[in-house]
């Protein structure tokens, strides 16, 4: 599978993205916090050129050199990437925390997206659920734990150190409950190592970058709880996973899907990383949604059902 690493100016540096090519409707794929663009490699392979796919490294992650300054970079970077990459009203696909990012972008710019696909239960979280996550990531002991578990922010000073770091992170990811069914650890780990001007390589994101995404107050109109989904005015698919942490929000997702004509619930037999464990099904959903909303845009009509 061919893909091209491309960069576009953003903030004091650049955003990086993997362009998988393809014809047909445009689709922008956004990985969750701590992950990076190659998380979508297997899905892109299954899509097999039926859509034009681009996967983004969020600010502070992997090959995107710009660090986030606050939570607004979650959606401002997506809006900037869509414009700079020449994507025409793409379907925005976000996994886990990035489900909120793509919803925020679609709300911040109502003309940006043709549709949203939210993979995992993030959009079903209530305010208190999100506040708990925000508070937790700011606890120094939790931040230190993330550094130890995933080597976020670690620096390799020479090629030997680089290979040792890659091997160590792959071992950590393979053994960790948060990434246990992530079958693409080596691709993601190698992509996450940004070469710095002094020739060293840093494993990104740093925990401090992740914390910036949590700097948002509950009274912000784009606070990432279930109010986001209720405000969306583009067709939105809530992809409910059968396994993993988000299963505790399954009832919330069902309630949320009934609250708006724009929201549709899809159930997927998969764990925390469906891009690996259910790549075929997720790829078919992306193609079906992208082609469907593209046809509606050309032919006219209301929300897709």
From TrEMBL:
<dbReference type="InterPro" id="IPR029058">
    <property type="entry name" value="AB_hydrolase_fold"/>
</dbReference>
<dbReference type="InterPro" id="IPR050266">
    <property type="entry name" value="AB_hydrolase_sf"/>
</dbReference>
<protein>
    <recommendedName>
        <fullName>AB hydrolase-1 domain-containing protein</fullName>
    </recommendedName>
</protein>
<dbReference type="Pfam" id="PF12697">
    <property type="entry name" value="Abhydrolase_6"/>
</dbReference>
<feature type="domain" description="AB hydrolase-1">
    <location>
        <begin position="27"/>
        <end position="284"/>
    </location>
</feature>
<dbReference type="InterPro" id="IPR000073">
    <property type="entry name" value="AB_hydrolase_1"/>
</dbReference>
<dbReference type="GO" id="GO:0016020">
    <property type="term" value="C:membrane"/>
</dbReference>
<dbReference type="GO" id="GO:0046464">
    <property type="term" value="P:acylglycerol catabolic process"/>
</dbReference>
<dbReference type="GO" id="GO:0047372">
    <property type="term" value="F:monoacylglycerol lipase activity"/>
</dbReference>
């Amino acid at each position: 599978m061919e893909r091209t690493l491309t960069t576009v100016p953003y903030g004091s540096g650049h955003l990086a993205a993997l362009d998988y090519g393809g014809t047909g409707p445009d689709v922008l794929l956004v990985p969750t916090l701590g992950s990076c663009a190659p998380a979508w490699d297997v899905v892109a392979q299954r899509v097999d050129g039926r859509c034009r796919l681009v996967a983004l490294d969020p600010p502070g992650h992997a090959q995107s050199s710009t660090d986030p300054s606050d939570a607004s970079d979650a959606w401002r970077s997506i809006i900037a990437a869509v414009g700079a990459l020449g994507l025409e009203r793409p379907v925005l696909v976000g996994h886990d925390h990035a489900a909120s990012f793509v919803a925020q972008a679609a709300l911040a710019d109502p003309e940006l997206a043709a549709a949203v696909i939210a993979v995992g239960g993030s959009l079903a979280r209530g305010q208190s659920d999100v506040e708990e996550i925000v508070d937790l990531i700011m606890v120094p002991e939790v931040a230190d734990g993330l550094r130890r578990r995933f080597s976020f922010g670690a620096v390799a000073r020479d090629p030997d150190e680089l290979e040792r770091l890659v091997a160590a992170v792959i071992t950590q990811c393979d053994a960790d409950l948060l990434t246990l069914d992530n079958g693409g650890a080596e691709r993601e780990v190698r992509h996450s190592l940004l070469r710095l001007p002094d020739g060293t390589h840093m494993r990104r994101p740093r925990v401090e970058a992740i914390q910036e995404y949590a700097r948002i107050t509950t009274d912000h109109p784009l606070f990432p709880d279930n109010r986001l989904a209720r405000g969306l005015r583009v067709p939105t698919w809530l992809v409910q996973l059968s396994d993993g942490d988000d299963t505790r929000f399954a009832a919330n997702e069902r309630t949320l899907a009934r609250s708006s004509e724009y929201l549709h619930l899809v159930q997927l037999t998969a764990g925390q990383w469906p891009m690996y464990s259910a790549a075929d099904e997720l790829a078919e959903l992306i193609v079906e949604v992208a082609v469907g909303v593209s046809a509606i845009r050309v032919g006219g009509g209301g929300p897709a059902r």
